[in-house]
């Protein structure tokens, strides 16, 4: 007996109704991207491993899907590394290419490679799939789409302001009722490391702090101790866990905490500018909060850090982003500041599904199915199908004169909105008998009347 086919964990098939809903999300995001002045680009689904590795930190590198070398290139495998039990080096020797982990690093490579063809500041958007070898769970997949917008070639904080507005615009247009934009600044995190006396452990500190909502204060302290932070450093970091109140209050408390750190105060100043501008311009639905624990353990952020969460839903962040002053520098292009954000379309889909927020009009169901009564009627209806399609009405003719029950079951299974019942009597009278499948009502209409009613 043949084995039942399946797909890898962390991936999904999408039925037509699901594709229609995903398309609705992509189109909504794309429209806002273009209104805000971003232009589309695309990059390959896989990159050279050297492009990706070392850009996401130790944890990120472990989640990159590597593509096994083929042919003679397999001979390049480092067998000595295998004997030495250096599995990471051995794995890297087997692969020269990898599936992209996100869209930002490939974008940095794109900017460097095509710098002579671009005008700066360069604003791009990109809606494509990415892959991560993460443990599949609710809201976390190994293959998923990202919808990114980035600006490179300017260090103006006006772009941070724009991105806060863009988060608000897109999620409001998707009818999400309650969501929070959390914001922090990597310079504030650098200030924390400086105050603790452990500036050389900035990455370890930020990665641990970023897990506060998952493992709690005790878990963070334990992880920091395991990473080698001294008891004195942990004592200096401890006041961070007590910072509460409104965003303005938390910023004031952080000012006092970072009083002796120049870079930390610079981060506070940038944060205040962005929040003041956003408050003056106003938001439609979003709440904006300063969150000192927000770190997003990605190595390349150097300024603002964003994360968006849908309130009232058991889901991680649905959007994120930040500023990365040095990202293109890793590809040989210095002094190219950038800032970008990403919409997690798959998580947004799950949130809209859970909250039942998709508009009823979002579907790709057939507008009109012509019932097939026989050879004469079939020939007549084929012309009407062509005319309906030309008028923008999705239409088809059932392929055979099967029993009415079978044809109507097909219409039900396809969620067809209307059926056309055209026999010899309707042909003689020059009318279309249209049945609404939801209400069950029938009406005799001329072709033009039918088009108008179906469009309405």
Which features does this protein show?
16 strands; alpha+beta; 456 residues; Rossmann fold; 18 helices; five-stranded mixed β-sheet; BirA Bifunctional Protein, domain 2; eight-stranded mixed β-sheet; 42% helix; 2 domains
Brief synopsis:
This protein has 456 residues and is an alpha+beta fold. The protein has 18 helices and 16 strands.
Task: Set out the fold topology.
Blueprint (H helix, E strand, L loop, with lengths): L15 H20 L3 E2 L5 E3 H4 L4 H6 L3 E3 L10 H5 L3 H7 L1 E5 L4 H10 L8 E10 L11 E10 L5 H16 L5 E7 H11 L5 H8 L2 H15 L4 H7 L9 H11 L4 H20 L5 E4 L13 E7 L8 E5 L14 E7 H10 L13 E3 L4 H16 L4 E3 L6 H10 L4 E3 L3 H6 L2 E5 L5 E4 L1 H9 L1
Parallel strand pairs: 1-5, 7-8, 12-13, 12-14
Antiparallel strand pairs: 2-4, 3-4, 5-6, 6-11, 7-9, 9-10, 10-11, 14-15, 15-16
Rg over alpha carbons: 28 Å
Widest sheet: strand ordering:
1-5-6-11-10-9-7-8
Name of the CATH architecture of the largest domain? 2-Layer Sandwich
CATH superfamily of the largest domain: Bira Bifunctional Protein, Domain 2
CATH topology group of the largest domain: BirA Bifunctional Protein, domain 2
Largest sheet properties: 8 strands, mixed
Q: Tell me what portion of residues adopts beta-strand conformation.
A: 15-25%
Top-tier CATH class of the largest domain: Alpha Beta
Average pLDDT works out at 90
Oligomer: single chain
Structural class: alpha+beta
Shape: elongated
